[in-house]
């Protein structure tokens, strides 16, 4: 039964990702990295990811791009005095929505990291301190951190407001706490799910593993939301 549910939710995730990707192609995001982040969100938020994208992230159609761009620029000038260190502008969304989108930004890096690290850990049997599970967690964290910093660095540079060195420092400040919170949530769920549902083995070649990872990413997202809220309210990063 778990295998059936695993395939159902994995396919829903793929379909949600594809639908968002198609729509994003027609309606490019003002911030280029979100063209990748929103479809990735659909992978671990089946159906819900489409609702979140529609409500919080959907941009104007491409043929209206100049008009939409002008609108964003106006909004940016309106809030120049509050420009963040990570180069993001304030949005006109309610704060909870802006923080939600910031959390998806973190989630995109973590998800890509796990998509890369999990098959590698399974294929190599990599272990840390004699534990394959610990080896998986270590590889996942390193890959997620690399992608997470990249996902922060690129928008900062895109805004043209920081030198490469300053942009990297600001990306580390903006993403480290939220990414650690995301990873803690994932690890806690996997520590519970692996013995209960996966027979004690983290095998990236099974649909059950990726279903548990889907849930782990949702738990990680929930864990990262308070961290993103704190970072936003401390002025370290801004709601997107």
From TrEMBL:
Residues 64-92 are annotated as: Disordered. Keywords: Membrane, Transmembrane, Transmembrane helix. Residues 70-86 have a biased composition (Basic and acidic residues). The chain crosses the membrane at residues 6-24, 36-53, 137-156, 177-198, 210-232. The keyword Transmembrane helix applies. It comes from the Bacteria. Residues 96-237 form the DUF4396 domain. InterPro entries: DUF4396 (IPR025509). The keyword Membrane applies. This is DUF4396 domain-containing protein.
């Amino acid at each position: 039964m778990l295998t059936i549910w695993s395939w159902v939710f994995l396919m829903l995730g793929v379909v949600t990702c594809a639908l968002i990707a198609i729509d994003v192609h027609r309606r490019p995001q003002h911030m280029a990295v979100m063209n990748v982040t929103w479809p990735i969100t659909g992978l671990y938020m089946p159906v819900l990811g489409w609702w979140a994208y529609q409500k919080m992230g959907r941009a104007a159609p491409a043929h209206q791009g100049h008009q939409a761009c002008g609108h964003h620029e106006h909004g940016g000038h309106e809030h120049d005095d509050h420009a963040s260190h990570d180069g993001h502008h304030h949005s006109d969304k309610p704060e909870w929505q802006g923080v939600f989108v910031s959390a998806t930004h973190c989630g995109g890096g973590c998800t890509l990291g796990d998509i890369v690290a999990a098959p590698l850990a399974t294929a190599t049997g990599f272990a840390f301190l004699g534990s394959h599970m610990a080896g998986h967690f270590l590889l996942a964290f390193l890959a997620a951190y690399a992608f997470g910093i990249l996902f922060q660095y690129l928008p900062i540079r895109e805004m043209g407001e920081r030198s490469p060195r300053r942009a990297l420092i600001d990306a580390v400040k903006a993403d480290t706490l939220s990414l650690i919170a995301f990873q803690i949530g994932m690890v806690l769920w996997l520590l519970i799910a692996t013995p209960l549902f996966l027979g004690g083995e983290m095998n990236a070649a099974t649909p059950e593993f990726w279903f548990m990872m889907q849930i782990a990413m949702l738990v990680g997202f929930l864990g990262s939301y308070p961290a993103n809220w704190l970072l936003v309210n401390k002025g370290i990063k801004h709601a997107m």
